[in-house]
Write a structure and sequence with these properties.
about 400 residues; alpha+beta; Butyryl-Coa Dehydrogenase, subunit A, domain 1; Butyryl-CoA Dehydrogenase, subunit A, domain 2; Butyryl-CoA Dehydrogenase, subunit A, domain 3; 3 domains; four-stranded antiparallel β-sheet; about 15% strand
């Protein structure tokens, strides 16, 4: 028999994250978004409360909860604003989960432990000016000289670029394979802020996620010891794809929270706003838009919960996570558009939260695999053109710690 009930532990995660976001961020989010202002205090709070290490085992400084808890936290944070969920996507999903799975014990002690405790804020840098979905189009290089690597290149559209303490980056170590576009020439590294040759900056004028920090990284003859390499030479593509499976999961859960936020705001407004002497919620076409939000929320939640269950079981979930990310982000875009429609002209002003939802939803159908990438992936799975081979390394199965 399938049990759809959340455990008491999961309910407590929902409550704690929801109360924090409603108390500390919701009253200020319009101002933060309007000013495009990143508040570093928020990142510190998420760390102090244990949210940044929510699914990292206790032996590595985390809360030791499961991957469903990570999804619940992501949904609750994005219910208030997308920039909050981005912390879990980047710091926890993309970086910490990669270190947990691919890092050596020394690397876990050096970076994962302080990151899980919230003492260090972590980033992930894959995208470049001329390479997003086309990962083998990356131009950054890491040339080995003796026992060190010399990195040169640029990364852009990097969340937390100007504020994170560490970054997981991917660059070419085999230049011959770079010319042949053979992804086995890519290698992953951890870099630390303050490293000589590292420059970072902030991108301004964004449509979405204005309360968060997004920027660029530049490597100018930046030297790294071999101890900063994650995995073996040539594992970079595998690690990048592994990381995306974790990040996409948080994006799916977060977008589901955005659908719910659109639904709740629309329901409240439709009950209060009147036309022709009656609430607009009594009009059938307004009901249709709200009904679609309700249906999308429930279905998207089931999709990410399924992906989270597979993660807990230690089973590969690339297909299921892709499906959840694709459907939830597309649904959030539709829900936000309908929410603005429900609000009418008021929905075009930032006095209404749906104006911000409408801007925020757009980024998620682009990053961590565009909706077009995921559309093709799902069609290829259905047609039998794509099958998942065994992974070099899998996300550890969830094991409750004493």
């Amino acid at each position: 028999m399938i049990d759809f009930d959340l455990s008491p532990e999961h309910r407590e995660v929902e409550r704690a994250v929801r109360e924090y976001a409603a108390r500390e961020v919701a009253p200020r989010i319009r101002e933060l978004d309007e000013k495009g202002e990143y508040d570093p205090k928020i990142g510190r709070q998420l760390g102090e409360l244990g949210f940044l290490g929510i699914c990292v085992p206790r032996r590595y400084g985390g809360a030791g909860l499961d991957y469903i808890a990570l999804g619940l936290a992501s949904e609750e944070l994005e219910y208030v604003d997308t920039f909050l969920r981005v912390f879990l996507s980047v710091h926890t999903g993309l970086n910490c989960m990669s270190l947990l799975t691919w890092g050596t014990e020394e690397q876990k002690q050096r970076w994962l432990v302080p990151q899980a405790k919230g003492e260090l804020l972590a980033g992930y840098a894959l995208t470049e000016p001329n390479a997003g979905s086309d990962v083998v189009g990356l131009q950054s290089t890491a040339v080995k000289r003796g026992d060190r690597y010399v990195l040169n290149g640029e990364k852009t559209w990097i969340s937390l670029a100007d504020v994170a303490d560490t970054f997981l980056v991917v660059a070419w170590t085999d230049l011959d394979k770079k010319q042949r576009r053979d992804h086995s020439g890519l290698t992953a590294f951890m870099i630390e802020r303050g490293t000589k040759g590292l420059e970072t900056g902030t991108l301004h004028g964004k449509l979405s996620v204005r309360a968060g920090n997004t920027g660029w990284l530049a490597f100018r003859d930046m030297e790294l010891p071999a101890a900063n390499r994650i995995g073996a030479e040539g594992d970079g593509f595998k690690i990048a794809m592994f990381a995306l499976d974790q990040g996409r999961f948080t994006v799916a859960a977060g977008a589901t929270g955005l659908v719910r936020a659109c639904r709740d705001a629309s329901v409240k407004y439709a009950r209060e706003r009147t036309t022709a002497g009656r609430p607009i919620g009594e009009h059938q076409l307004v009901k249709q838009m709200i009904a679609e939000m309700e249906g999308d929320y429930e279905s998207c939640r089931l999709l990410w919960l399924r992906a989270g269950w597979l993660k807990n079981e230690g089973r590969r979930n690339t297909r299921e996570t892709s499906l959840a990310k694709w459907r939830a982000t597309v649904a959030s875009e539709k829900a936000a558009g309908n929410a603005v429609q429900v609000f009418g002209a008021y929905g075009c002003n930032n006095e209404a939260p749906v104006e911000r939802f409408y801007r925020n939803c757009k980024a998620a159908v682009i990053y961590e695999g565009t909706r077009e990438i995921h559309t093709v992936m799902q069609a290829d799975y259905a047609l039998g053109y794509r099958t998942d081979r065994p992974l070099a390394r899998s996300l550890p199965k969830y094991e409750a710690e004493p």
